[in-house]
Design goal:
This protein is an alpha+beta fold. The chain has a single domain, classed as Chloramphenicol acetyltransferase-like domain (Chloramphenicol Acetyltransferase). Helix content is about 30%, strand content about 25%. It contains 10 helices and 17 strands. The strands form 4 sheets. A 7-stranded mixed beta sheet has the order 6-10-17-16-14-11-12. Strands 5-7-8-2-15 form a 5-stranded mixed beta sheet, sandwiched between helices. Strands 1-4-3 form a 3-stranded antiparallel beta sheet, with no helix packed on it. A hairpin with a 4-residue loop joins strand 7 and strand 8. Helix 2 crosses helix 4, helix 5 packs across helix 8 and helix 6 crosses helix 10. The longest helix has 18 residues.
Length: about 400
Amino acid sequence: MARAVSGMERLWLAAGRVAPPFAVHAVVELDAVPDERALALAIGALHAAWPDLSPRLAGVLRGARWAPAPAPPLALCPDLTWEDGDISAAIAALDAAAALDPDGPSLRWLLVPGPPARLVLSTLHAITDGRGALTMLTALAELLRGQAPPPLPSQRHEGDEALARGGRPVPPPRADAAAPYAPDGDPADRGRRTLRRRVALAPRAPLARALAAAARARPGARLRVDVPVDLRRPALGPQTGNLSGLLRVELPAEAGGPEGVAVVDAALRAAIDAGAHLHTTAEAQRVRAWPLWLIAGEAERRAAAERARGAVPVSFTFSNLGRVPLPALDMGSARCTSFYPIPPAAPGLPALCTLTGGDDGAGRVHLELLVSAPARWASAPTLAAWVEALGAALEAPV
């Protein structure tokens, strides 16, 4: 059944016109290459059970809908691999291999033999978020273990959920925040940079620690951060679309001080208690009636002007998926050793970060930090130094 396109999803569609494909690559790293035939059969079974997984865009303006589309086949990518550090070239190749499009396919399954072997679920951000991709991958793993996925209920999007929970639109912020690093990218460079930093432990309050480190890296600067908040509830059943609110917080001046982690943690909790993640999300619904060409054109104009001034509405986005049980993502006899989503780069956002904890079930937990940034904002050395500062803060003794 077709479902409405939300306001946030329209923003992601417009971002895809400015910086295509604006996709999320959810990566399952494995200790062996899974059986290709069994994997392809399980993917077909999953799409048969959940036919809304790979929709295509239909209709316009407020009538825009995600309509069911055929399941994409499993694709083999034998010459693609990446490790820690700057993985920009590999992700550009991954974008090209997925060849995602709102008219279809909006989702692809890619098998990378490695080593390490990787199963990659590539999706337009307009159809799902990181938690939705994890829901799909977990269901696929269950199918490979002989478990049938539960029925897929009616799908809600973040705008409906925010309004239902009392969210009220709030004005967007002014472009008066700083980038999280001293911007030195080439304003004419329309490319992106993506870095991966693996942290071999999981400290307490990792999100607050990372944000406090960002405040220390830019002392005295106004930093405003968006933190996606999962709006899924058990009563809703499996939800595979975008269902994240946006918690918008200006980091307090004390965030870079000796008590920075506690200060940031308190600020995040206070904003959640005030329903800030619902209000910001409800505000995005206003663009549902706007043409995509208009949203995209305005986004590109603002992105260029803000880069010239070095000031933005939001300094960076930081998504924390929390602790993921890796055995739940074993693909048949191939065991999962890590899971992480690779974020896209938004044209007017200096950095988009994801943090994911991998729990192997035997007491060992590690973190995966992924950061994408427009090349117009950050040179390779500058972005690498910023990511290293965040990683070092996560590794530092408590």
